[in-house]
Amino acid sequence: MKTEGMGRARLGRFAAITVPATLASVGLGIAIVQGMVAATISSAGGFDLDTSLSADALKVRPGQTQVGDADTGKETIFAETENARADGLTVKSPTVNLPLVQGVHLEIASTDSDIGLGNVALNAATLRTPDGASLNNVTLGQAQSRSGFSDTSQASGYDATGFSLVSGESTLNNISAKAYAVTLSGLSLNNLSLSVKRS
Amino acid sequence: MSTSQKPNLFVRAWRGITRWRRTRPFWGSLALLAGAYFVANPLFGAEWAFYVHMGVRGMTPLLLAGGMAAAALVALCAPAQRHFPAIVASMFSVASLPLANLGGWIIGMMFGIIGSGLIFAWTPYSEKQLAKFAAREERRGRRRALRTSAA
Predict the structure, then answer these.
(1) When you count CB atoms within 10 A of the terminal residue's CB, does the N or C end of chain A come out lower?
(2) What predicted TM-score, i.e. pTM, was given to this entire model?
(3) What is the spatial distance between Cα B138 and Cα B151, in angstroms, rounded to a whole number?
């Protein structure tokens, strides 16, 4: 029995909100993929990042970030690259427990062999390159104040007199990292796949 | 109606909840709340030092998710005020794509857009529609009574 005060959703009004919003989000998505809009990804639980990276310059220093109860005060690797290009890219989000489908994660992947990333700042708990890496013009042990890091906040573990590694042209093959934050100045790729998978 | 025909407490409570649910954009608000949850989810459990390190960028997903959740609660508690929060929530949902972990890994943004659309789309029945529903109910009742008397 329908009485006064009850109502229902009307399709025309639903479309008035969802159609422009969908068009705007598709436009923004294309702009992100084309590298016109910077995207920020950050996670307290850490997310998995797999790629092969080459860059004009690489700076690495110890960092720290306090994230989540399990990872409080954990040391991290803070890496900044200039004009980075990636060969293949896979980002796995932290696992989300949903009421019906327990434990799923989102996977964003691209099989492009030449993905333009611009300048990248990566704060990772672990970073492995099992297939090796090549670094040119390496300066090991240079004071962080002389390396020109963009993030010099003490909370990020920056120590002006602390250890850092600076190199020129660098290639890191098959990087496997558990990252807490990645900032990309742009992302330029030709194919992108999004999928929700069970963890 | 005699006392024995009265519905029990559970049935009466369920009918009350159903009536409450139908007098507001319930499913839209739930979808929008789910969107807010997914947008903020990657940052749950973070400590203050995390936000200090991340700066304003670290706060953005929480601000967007907070705005979406507030819009959902306004629509749920004050249905008459639903239009403006729905429009703002749809903007927040779209903005979450570049600003908050690719829109809460896309899922949060989709829930946000659908939820705010459902909230905006919800409208109470007009007097004319209610009169039409009442007339239809009356016709059905008459037919039922005829069938019963024929049997």
Answers:
(1) N
(2) 0.65
(3) 20
- Helices of type H across chain B: 9-22, 26-40, 48-54, 56-77, 83-99, 101-105, 107-121, 127-150
Q: What is the pLDDT of residue A176?
A: 84
Q: How far apart are CA B126 and CA A5, in angstroms?
A: 9
Pairwise pLDDT comparison (A145 vs B56), residue with the higher score: A145
- According to the model, what pLDDT value does residue A66 have? 46
Which of A67, A75, A107, A150 should one mutate to test binding to chain B, selecting the residue with the greatest count of B CBs within 10 A?
A: A67
> A183 — contact with chain B (CB < 8 Å)?
yes
Q: Is A16's Cβ below 8 Å from some Cβ in B?
A: yes
Structure tokens at B23: 């007098």
Q: Which of B15, B27, B50 to mutate to test the interface with A (most CBs of A within 10 A)?
A: B50
Q: What is the pLDDT of residues B99-136, one digit of tens each?
A: 887 777 788 899 999 999 999 999 998 888 889 988 99
Asked if A22's CB is within 8 angstroms of B109's CB, the reply is: no
As given in the structure block, the two tokens for residue B142 are 């008459």
Between positions 74 and 113 of B, the ones with CB within 8 A of A are: 86-87, 90-91, 93-94, 97-103, 105-107, 109, 113
Q: B133 in contact with A at a CB cutoff of 8 Å?
A: yes
Task: For chain A, give every domain's residue range.
Answer: 1-37, 39-198
SS (HEC) of chain A: CCCCCCEEECHHHHHHHHHHHHHHHHHHHHHHHHCCCCCEEEEEEEEEEEEEEEECEEEEEEEEEEECCCEEEEEEEEEEEEEEEEEEEEEECCCECCCCCCCEEEEEEECCCCEEEEEEEEEEEEEECCCCEEECCCEECCCHHHHCCCCCCHHHCCCCCCCCEEECCEEEEEEEEEEEEEEECCCECCCCEEEEEEC
d(CA A176, CA A38): 23
Which tokens sit at A186? 């742009």
Residues paired with A104 in a beta bridge:
A96, A198
The CB-side HSE value for A190 (13 A sphere, CA atoms) comes to 5
